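[audit] Reproducing an earlier prediction to check determinism. Same input, same settings, fresh worker. If the C-alpha cells differ from the archived copy the diff job will pick it up downstream; this log only records the rerun itself.
[audit] input (175 residues):
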Amino acid sequence: MSRLTKDPLLAFAQILIVAFMSMAVVVALGMLIGIPFAIINREEIFGELLLQSNHSTTEVMAIIVAAFVLMIVMMGLWFKFLQNLLWIINSVGKGDPFVPVNADRLRNMGWTMVALHLVAIPVVSIAGWVTSFTDHAGPNLDGPGSGIVLIVVLFVLSRVFKKGSEMREDLEGTV
C-alpha cells in the first residue's frame, strides 16, 4: 500500500491539487477561446461599455483583450504553482520531503506568487474600470495581506527545507 493511500490527507490534497490544475487549464482555454468571441460579438457583449466609455471601440477592445491575455498568464502561473505543490506532496508521500529540490520548488512557488500578484494588478484595474460602467460592484479584494503572508511563508519554508536537507547531508557524511 502506498503512503498516499495510507495518509488520507495526502491523497485528498493530491486529488484537490490535480482538480485545481485542471480548472486552471479549462479557464485558460476558455479565455483563449473568449478572445475571438469577444471581438466578433463586441457590440452585443460590450455594447453598454462601448457607448458609455470615452474611448474608441478599438481602444476598449484592446483593453478587454489585454485583460483576457493577462488572465491566461495568471492561470499559467497558478498551474505552475500547483504543479510544484503537487511534486512536494508526492515527495512527502514517498517519505522523503527534505531534499534540495523541494527547497527549490518552494522558492519557485514564492516567486510564482510574486509574479501572480504583479500580473493581477492590471487585471483588477481593468475589472474596476469595466464595472464602473455597470451597476455591479467592482472587484472585491481582501487586500494584499494574505498574499504577502503566503509569499513570506513560502520563502521561509524554502529556507527550512534547504537547511534541513543540508543538515541531513552533513549527518549522512558523518556516519
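[audit] rerun output stored. Observation attached for the diff report: The mean pLDDT is 84.
[audit] end
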